[in-house]
Every structure is written in structure tokens, then in C-alpha cells.
Design the sequence.
DNA sequence: TCGATTTTGGAAAACGTTATTAAAAAACGA
DNA sequence: TCGTTTTTTAATAACGTTTTCCAAAATCGA
């Protein structure tokens, strides 16, 4: 492996000079500059990022912590993060925490040891939040929350999200406009803020339209496929008729559709259903899913952009960016 | 940040001694050992992995290169890799190459500069293969191919895959057993080996059962949702009746189902369809998809295991592991 | 032309580990 | 008791950059 010192010797300059030239912080003559660059190229020089990171205290690595990369929302988010990172010469360490505080802690520990320059969190457990975030902040770690942001908003940590309550409100209101009055809701795990917010949007929409909020219409899910399936069975077994379902994410909506079909209910003739997220698949399932389309890729990209700005400027990013989603009407809903 | 030298001072020993104790390579008295460990704990010592990596030339990072993390196969694979890595104190850099040789090259370049300890490739373009792999091998980079392995098998690089030809054969034969004789095939991109192999399996099954192989029944896809959709339209527009489709992955099967429905064809009454991969969604779509279930997570895990063994032993891993898949019969297929 | 200023480049320390070599201390054998 | 072996620990040099500070050379102004 050719090192800076090898270039320096061949070009008859000092290693420091070569370093400055390669980094673009050199102020000397363009004659030496060209000569050094030429030699570097000839020798096929590749900087050793480990050495560079150690000295400069910049690892040029950011981490993305997701609860579960196999949930289709997160690969999309991840692409946004990765693209923005790569374009800025950063690499991304992927940490799929499985919603487990122990794994989360383990990941954060190794990220600190690696001196990663920043961390993007989507979803973090309360434990981790209380125990780790303050220390990370004290250590000047740059951080951004995306999608599943914690409720505390007095911290110097940027947040990128959609207005979950508003968008859920829109989705529910859309069903109401279609004439539905008995609308069930399959929520996300209610220990997460986004699940609460979406539920709240559903509630508000009912209330604003003078519809009763009935506990029997609400079932808690997990944001995963099978929980939508199970939720529908619970709802149907309660024997209280409903004509529409608002599922708080697409995956659960898909599970719900499956369960409805199993019970010989037609969609949208018997039951209308609205999802949330707008994952690519939502357009391709049968029937195609009316859903709240989030700008997932854009959220990832924006989060990474804020993080990198923070890293480069040395100032903790603390913007709060709210992106717009929209209800995309497809085949799974029908006027009552 | 507390350093080894801080511990050394407090414990009245040399930094070297502390280093050895912390790494477990210490042979001295257990009295000093206990004392040093105690002090390290008291001070809340966290090793600086950048320094450690620089000196030891082991970054404790592996990279996973995937064509497209948003295709559901890859998050599942990624989980396997990540779990195995984490349990061995390795982190994973995710590289979603988008099948673009330029991005691939850019990623590989930065991975080399970072001195990552190993790379897991699923899918790599021919360009990259020819240009980069020999140099990586010369630099003793440990590598494993998984899922989409290149055809060259004389290289000291381990491979983890299923027998794509055999599994495709099984899928096709299953349709034949059901009485289907006119079976269309939506292939993957034929510049990839796995797509070729699956097509070959389809062909062999037809041949072995004395059925003609008809070019009009074969359409090339891209492994993505929309290509399954388009392929079905092409097939139907050819106006040559068929009763079954073998789609070379689940995503294309889902796209295909969508297109069939749009044309008012019922599944499985009018057309039977078999997919490939066994992504979790395949069970939940309507109708649930008969498909070749691959042990995706296990493939990722195995690949990572081989890689880590190679890294730890210093010997290039060169095993060739073939895992078993199985045809899972669900609702999308029916006796003719 | 000579002092002041700017431009250009070098010297050397530092980042925090690990690895190698060798010395000091302890234990041992006769 | 004294040399020999074994155990325990220290000293020191890396790993390959970046950074800070300073000197030499060149340019400039009057």
C-alpha cells in the first residue's frame, strides 16, 4: 500500500504538504500541487481512512438505527439515507435493533467506540433514550430523529417527520366523506408516539364529524403483517358491524385484507380499507390500497442531509422538519 | 474520553500491560489483572476502535453489497448478516448498489480505504468483477458471494446459494403434476446467473416431461414489481393461451397477479401461478402465493459466518454451500 | 535597495492503540 | 547461595494521517 510518505519522497516535499494538497487545504504554488497530484495518481494512492479518522476525529461514518429492516418502510428510508451519505463520501452502518433495548444499547456502545460522526434514529426505546441520549449529547454526537421521533422536544436534536395526526385525520375524514360512519381502527403499538398520534387523528376526525368514538372499534396492532390479520378477526368476533377500516400502516392493511377475504367479505363492496405509508407494494396488492402516501425516501434523505450539515458545521442540528403526505385513492375504498 | 494511558497511570502499570489485559492476551499475575480491570471499569473506559483498527489492521467492519435493499429479499438477507456480525462484535456497512457499476465501484473504493475486514456480495456487475475482484484478492480481502454468485468458480471466494436450477425445476414440475401443459415463465434479468439458472430449471422440467419449450411463453423481467405486471400483458397480448405462470421471484408474481386481475382472469381458476423466494408477504397477498421458499435469513447468516471464519483464521473462505429450498403450496395454484 | 509582507513549504508532535523486544523480578534447582 | 529458568512488566516503536507552528524564500513597497 502506498502511503503519503511515499508520495512525499518521490515528489521531494514533506508529508504535511502532500496531505494538505490531497485534502484541498493547500495554499502554495500550483506547480508543486500539480506535481504531487500527478505522482499520487501514478502511484495509485488510496488514503487510509483509519489513520485519517484517528487523527482528525472524523470517521466519515454515520449510523442508521431502525427497528426492523424487514418492514418495507425502512429499506425505503434507508435508501434515502444511503444516497445522501454516499454523495457526501460517508458510509452507513446499519443497525436493526428489533425494538430490543439490549440490542439498541449494544449497537450504541459500538457506535461510540467507533467514533461515528452521527446517528439517525428511527424508533428508540424509552430505556435507551433516558440512559444513552444525554451522554451522547454531552459527547457532542450529532443526531437526528426520523419518522418515530420521541416526545421530548427540548433537546438539540433535529426531527424529520410527517404530521401523523393530521394525515391520519385526513385518511379518516376521507372515509367519512364516502359516507362511512362505522369505522374501525387498527392502531400501531401504542407505546410508540406515531401510533398514538395516528389514533388521535382518527379520533379527532370522528369527533369533528359528530361521530361517536367507540372503543370496540379500536384494536392495537404491531405494525406487522400478522397483527392486521389478527385485528380483523378480533373486530369481526365482536359482532358490531362496521363498514370501513383505517389501518395505521400498509402492512397491517394487507394482513387485514387477507382476514376479511377469509371471512368472505369483499373489498371494497363490504368493507372499505385505508392504509398508511404508501409502500410500493400498496399499489400492487389486490385490491390496490387506498393509503396515506408518505415521502419515505425523502424523509431518509432529509434526515441524512440535516445530520451531515450538523457534522460539517459542528453545530447540533435541531431543525424540526415536517413533510407532507397525501391520501392516494385506489381500489380498496368505495362510497357507502 | 478516558484512554488506556489513563488507566495505566492510575494502576501504576504500563499502557502495554493494560492493553493486553483488556484484550485477554495477558499472561501476568491475576492480581494486576483484577486491579486494572477494576480501574478500567471505574473510569468507564471505552476503547477507541479507530486507534485499535489502525494499529492492528483489523477494522471489525464488514460490508454487505446488495443490488437494491428495497427488494424484500435483501432486508431478510441483511438481517441474517447483521445478526451474525453483531454477535461477533462486527458492524455492517450497507451498500445498495442499484445494479450500477459506477456506484459499485465507488462503494468498493471506499471500503478498501476503510480497510474493512471482509465483503459479502450479492450481485455484482461483470465490470466490477473483472476490474476489482482480482485486486481485492491480491490485497487479501476476505469475500463471500451469496445468492447471486458469479459463474467463475475457480476463485478462492466462498459461495452460499441454493440450487436455483433444481428449485425452479421443482416449481415447474409441480405445475406439470397439476396437469398444466402451457406454462409461461417470467424470468429475472437474463444477464444474471440466477435468472438463467431458474429459466434453465423451467426448461429442463418441460423437456423431461416431453413438453415443448416455446419462446412465446418466456418473457424477461427485472425481478421488480412492475416487470411482472408488464410481462403478463405481453404474454396475454401474444394471444397464445396458457394456464399457468412460473414467475422467477415473488415480487414479479405479485405484479403478474395484478395484471391478470386487471384483465379479468381469476387465480387460480383461470391461471395458476408459482413464485420464487418465499418473502413473508407471499403468504398474505390475495390469493396467497404458492412459491419456492428459500432460507433467506439463513443464507445471510451462513455467508457472514463463513466470512468471519475467514477473517479470523486469515484463510480465504472458499466453501461452496448449497442450502435447500422447498415448494410451499398455497392458494395461487390449482389442478387443471 | 532594504525592510516588511506574503507566499511556500518543512519539522515535529499528536491521535490512541498494539506489538515487539528486552529488562526486572521472582521462583527454582542443586 | 548463586546461576538458571520462568514469570511479570516496562520501554519503545510503530500504524498513516493531520495539524500547528515556524522558517525560508519570494515578492512588494517606498
Sequence:
Amino acid at each position: 500500500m502506498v502511503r503519503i510518505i511515499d508520495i512525499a519522497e518521490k515528489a521531494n516535499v514533506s508529508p504535511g504538504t502532500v496531505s494538505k494538497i490531497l485534502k484541498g487545504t493547500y495554499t502554495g504554488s500550483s506547480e508543486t500541487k500539480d506535481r504531487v497530484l500527478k505522482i499520487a495518481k501514478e502511484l495509485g494512492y488510496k488514503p487510509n481512512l483509519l489513520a485519517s479518522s484517528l487523527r482528525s476525529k472524523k470517521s466519515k461514518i454515520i449510523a442508521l438505527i431502525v427497528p426492523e429492516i424487514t418492514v418495507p418502510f425502512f429499506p425505503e428510508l434507508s435508501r434515502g439515507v444511503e444516497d445522501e451519505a454516499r454523495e457526501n463520501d460517508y458510509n452507513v452502518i446499519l443497525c436493526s435493533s428489533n425494538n430490543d433495548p439490549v440490542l439498541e444499547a449494544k449497537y450504541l456502545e459500538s457506535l461510540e467506540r467507533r467514533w461515528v460522526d452521527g446517528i439517525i434514529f428511527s424508533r428508540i426505546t424509552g430505556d435507551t433514550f433516558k440512559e444513552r441520549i444525554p451522554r451522547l449529547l454531552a459527547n457532542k454526537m450529532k443526531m437526528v430523529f426520523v419518522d418515530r421521533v420521541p416526545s421530548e422536544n427540548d433537546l438539540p436534536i433535529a426531527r424529520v417527520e410527517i404530521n401523523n395526526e393530521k394525515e391520519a385525520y385526513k385518511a379518516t375524514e376521507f372515509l367519512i366523506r364516502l359516507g362511512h360512519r362505522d369505522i374501525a381502527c387498527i392502531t400501531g403499538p401504542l407505546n410508540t408516539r406515531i401510533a398514538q398520534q395516528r389514533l388521535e387523528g382518527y379520533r379527532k376526525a370522528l369527533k369533528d364529524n359528530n361521530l361517536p368514538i367507540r372503543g370496540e372499534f379500536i384494536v392495537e396492532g404491531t405494525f406487522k403483517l400478522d397483527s392486521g390479520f389478527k385485528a380483523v378477526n378480533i373486530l369481526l368476533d365482536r359482532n358490531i358491524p362496521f363498514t370501513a377500516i383505517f389501518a395505521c400502516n400498509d402492512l397491517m392493511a394487507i394482513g387485514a385484507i387477507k382476514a376479511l377475504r377469509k371471512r368472505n367479505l369483499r373489498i371494497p363492496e363490504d368493507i372499505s380499507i385505508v392504509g398508511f405509508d404508501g409502500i410500493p407494494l400498496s399499489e400492487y396488492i389486490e385490491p390496490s390500497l387506498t393509503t396515506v402516501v408518505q415521502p419515505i425516501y425523502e424523509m431518509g434523505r432529509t434526515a441524512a442531509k440535516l445530520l451531515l450539515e450538523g457534522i460539517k458545521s459542528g453545530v447540533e442540528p435541531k431543525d424540526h422538519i415536517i413533510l407532507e403526505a397525501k391520501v392516494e385513492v385506489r381500489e380498496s375504498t368505495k362510497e357507502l
Q: What stands out?
A: The radius of gyration of chain B is 25 Å. Residues 1, 3-5, 15-16, 19-20, 23, 47-56 of chain B lie near DNA strand C (CB under 10 Å from a C1'). The longest helix of chain B spans residues 296-313.
